[in-house]
Design brief:
The complex is a heterodimer of chains A (335) and B (65).
Chain A: H1 12-39, H2 45-73, H3 78-82, H4 84-107, H5 114-119, H6 124-141, H7 145-151, H8 153-160, H9 162-176, H10 178-181, H11 185-214, E1 219-220, E2 223-228, E3 236-242, E4 245-252, E5 255-260, E6 274-276, E7 279-281, E8 288-289, E9 306-307, E10 309-312, E11 315-318, E12 332-333
Antiparallel strand pairs in A: 1-2, 2-11, 3-4, 4-5, 5-9, 5-12, 6-7, 7-8, 10-11
Chain B: H1 2-31, H2 40-52, H3 54-64
Classes of the chains: A alpha+beta (335), B mainly alpha (65).
Chain lengths: 335, 65
């Protein structure tokens, strides 16, 4: 959230996050390279780098893909989600290092252009890897918020959903490459466990979301009965599904306000955030909106839809018809 | 065929890098005021994307102009 871009928005928490990523990657790489070199002393440095970076990148991709559903299932994982794009860029740089070393080792030493040599390879797993690398490049290259505005949030989000396509390509890359050459079944078992974990977490998170959407509240005279006002924790929200849209109904300072649950930044779940300094704060990247108007505090420009509410007999009612983004709506008072 | 693809990729990238050099010094601020007065580190970070997505940014820049 900014009126002027910065190269990287660092704060103490993000610095700790990035230090943890760097130490984790170095530790993973170091242990793998050390163990492989001890087991196979004839392995060249290039081979160790090719294998080490590929394994680290593939492991990181599993972590990245698991963070989203884990955060939906348990808010304790939200801090991991907060700066996930740094993990993504790190993973791409590892994958790029793997690709550069592999191309130099296997395609750059002949008399044919190395890209031509790669494109005419007789080992199709290399083409799966190249395709995955291209997808990951576009994601890493457009990870800065500048691209969110240049491409529009919808296009940006769609582009970044390409991570699942890249994952499928990398599964093929590993299955037709490393797994075919590997005689030890442990690697196959680890890859299968990784895929099962990612799939299982997504299914569990999807099932939870579906249950939330299916829980249609009672409707009276066009108003949706949300529940008792005091059952909503102070400065927190209850999320309801209204007319196919998720709405976050916040309780704060004896008042009730409702806004769209979808953050304008990266579609983060506003209703899972809380009110900080009088603003609804997205749990993903800290974007803020005033609960009464759905507009970001000046000079910021983001706006989300607002909804009219009513409190009668201590019960909150919601008008499911959205007001235009940024429309001020008088908060309902809790009697 | 592979040679043609490699050559086309090279030409596309070369145009992209030339476009990025101009866009990052003159065009980016016209497209997004939040880039005004921001240092070289920001421009370096968005450079690969600008070089790769130059037709899209060129079209947007032309519309703004």
């Amino acid at each position: 959230m900014s009126v002027q871009y910065k190269a990287v928005y660092w704060n103490p928490a993000k610095r700790r996050y990035d230090v943890a990523i760097a130490l984790g990657v170095l530790l993973f790489l170091g242990v793998f390279i050390g163990l492989t070199a001890a087991r196979n002393p004839s392995a060249t440095a290039e081979t160790l780098v090719i294998r080490g970076t590929s394994l680290t990148a593939f492991f990181l991709l599993h972590v990245i893909l698991s963070i989203g559903p884990l955060a939906r299932l348990n808010t304790a994982f939200l801090p991991l989600l907060y700066n996930r794009r740094h993990l993504g860029v790190t993973m791409f740089l590892l994958a790029l290092t793997h690709a550069v070393f592999a191309i130099v080792q296997f395609h750059a030493l002949g008399d044919v252009n190395s890209l031509v040599s790669l494109l005419t390879t007789h080992a199709p797993f290399e083409l799966f890897g190249l395709a995955a690398l291209i997808v990951l490049f576009f994601m890493a290259a457009t990870s800065h918020d500048f691209w969110l505005n240049a491409l529009s949030p919808r296009v940006w989000k769609t582009l970044h959903m390409g991570v699942y396509f890249a994952y499928a390509l990398l599964i093929a890359h590993v299955a037709f490459g490393a797994l075919r050459a590997e005689t030890n079944p442990a690697l196959t078992a680890v890859c299968a466990m990784g895929a099962a974990t990612v799939t299982g977490l997504h299914l569990a998170a999807g099932w939870r979301e579906r249950r939330l959407d299916e829980r249609t509240p009672e409707s009276t005279a066009g108003l949706i009965e949300v529940g008792r006002a005091l059952d909503i924790p102070e400065k927190r929200a209850r999320i309801v599904s209204a007319g196919g849209e998720r709405v976050a109904i916040f309780r704060y300072d004896g008042k009730i306000s409702a806004i769209s649950n979808v953050c304008q930044h990266q579609n983060g779940p506003l209703g899972e955030g809380r009110i900080v300094d009088g603003c609804v704060t997205c749990p993903w990247h800290g974007y803020q909106y005033l609960p009464e108007s759905g507009a970001s505090p000046p000079p910021f420009l983001e706006k989300v839809a607002t909804y009219r509410t009513r409190v009668a007999g201590g019960v909150v009612y919601l008008d499911p018809r959205p007001c235009a983004p940024g429309t001020p709506v008088e908060p309902s008072r809790i009697e | 065929m592979a040679g043609a693809i490699a050559a086309a990729a090279g030409v596309y990238l070369a145009i992209g890098l030339a476009f990025a050099a101009i866009f990052l010094t003159r065009g980016i601020v016209k497209l997004d005021t939040r880039a005004a007065g921001v240092g070289w580190a920001f421009r370096l970070i968005v450079l690969p994307g600008v070089a790769a997505l130059w037709p899209l940014l060129w079209s947007k820049w032309r519309r703004v102009r």
